[in-house]
Amino acid sequence: MKRLHYLFFIVIIVYFSNCSSGKKTLEKGNYYQSSVQAVERLRKNPSHKKSQEVLLSSYPLAVNYYTDRVYNIQHSNDPFKSGKMIEQYEMMNALYEQIMRSPGALSVIPDPYKYYDEIRQLTEMAAEERYQSALQALSYGTRESAKQAYYDLMKADQYVSNYKDTGDKIEEALDMATLKVVVDQIPVPTVNFQLSVDFFQDQVDEFLFHYNNNPFVRFYSTKDTWLENPDQIMVIMFDQFSVGNTNNLQKTLIAENDSVEVGKVTLEDGSEMPVIGEVKAEYTEYTREIISNGLLSMKILEAQTERIIMHEKFPGEFVWVSRWASFNGDERALTEEQIELTKYKPRNPPPPQDLFIEFTKPIYSQITSTVSNYYNNY
Q1: Domains held by the chain: number
Q2: Residues sharing a CB contact under 8 Å with residue 187, sequence separation 6 or more, in sequence order
Q3: Label partner for 289 (CA 20 to 30 A): which of 143, 180, 238, 307?
């Protein structure tokens, strides 16, 4: 009952908080949000008096706030003034759309302001602002300035699709901004596990050559001989690995259980009584471990100087285990787990190629995580 009273109290608080939050938001000077909240309530309850009062006060204040910002931006030296003016008009248009979809709000604000014509007049100027900024950034010839040019050109294209030669300029900026890394995976000098080695190396290539965490980093193969002046070289190779090392373990013990019925005795009245005694068994447990492990090295070098700028090593291990057991004596001396193991037989281990794949799984996880962390913000 106390819990029900508590929940009812919480519901009442939330209800009255929601009813008054539009007014409180208005008092805090957030005219846009208070207008939206009032419109939402009027959409659910067109005759909600408090929301009508809030909207009647907040909407003109919101329009005045944004039109004042438009004026200030227009008379500023901001290089992107047209785009920023569009942002203010879009806020007012969002309020217009909200009110037009609420009959209750329309009864309070029957003729909301809309600024679509103003935005149309500004879009080409906004595109030109970004286009000129991109040309200047490209002229600096640095990777960081090319990044800024790329973003400016993408923004220009959003304002006016296919503005001037933005398509070609975007490709130019992206190429200049992209860090080009050549990946050199050193083949493993072995025949026995070649299929598994290829599988692992193909996985790494798939990750790197389809890397999309950062649009300004791209990986290339050593086969891409057309590539001139790469920025970095990534060398990946196994320092060492071992597959199929066997470790046989054997453990023998005497199992005892002193709470087992070993017989019965007949009492004078003819009834029988169980005799509790101890039973024993010699229990032997066998464990066969097939251990496979390796160590992968990844180096990142400056392409022009071959200076090592990063060197990481990634270990991996996989242990395949087979367990079984045997016993001599009374089975009742064994635990349920021991009895279950006596039903098992030695298993054949997986083929070496499968073992190689298993121990490289944690290596693959480490290398992909390290590459992502290193290049995400490059």
Answers
A1: 3
A2: 197
A3: 238
Which string of b and e fits 195-216 if b means at least 16 CB within 10 Å?
Answer: ebbeebbebbeeebeebeeeeb
pLDDT digits (tens, 9 = 90+) for 58-101: 999 999 999 999 999 999 999 999 999 999 999 999 999 999 99
**CA–CA gap between residue 80 and residue 89 (Å, rounded):** 15
Q: Give the residue-averaged pLDDT of 218-228.
A: 93
* Radius of gyration from C-alpha coordinates of the chain: 37
Q: Decide: pTM greater than 0.70.
A: yes
- Contact present, 163 and 131 (Cβ < 8 Å): yes
132, 36: one domain: no
| Domain assignment of residue 149, given as a range | 123-177
Distance separating alpha carbons of residues 361 and 377, to the nearest angstrom: 26
Residues 146 and 222 in one domain: no
Q: What band does 9 get if pLDDT is binned at 50, 70 and 90?
A: very low
Residue 159 lies in a domain: yes
Query: What span, in angstroms and rounded, lies between the C-alpha atoms of 22 and 30?
Result: 9
Alpha carbon distance 181, 223 (integer Å): 13
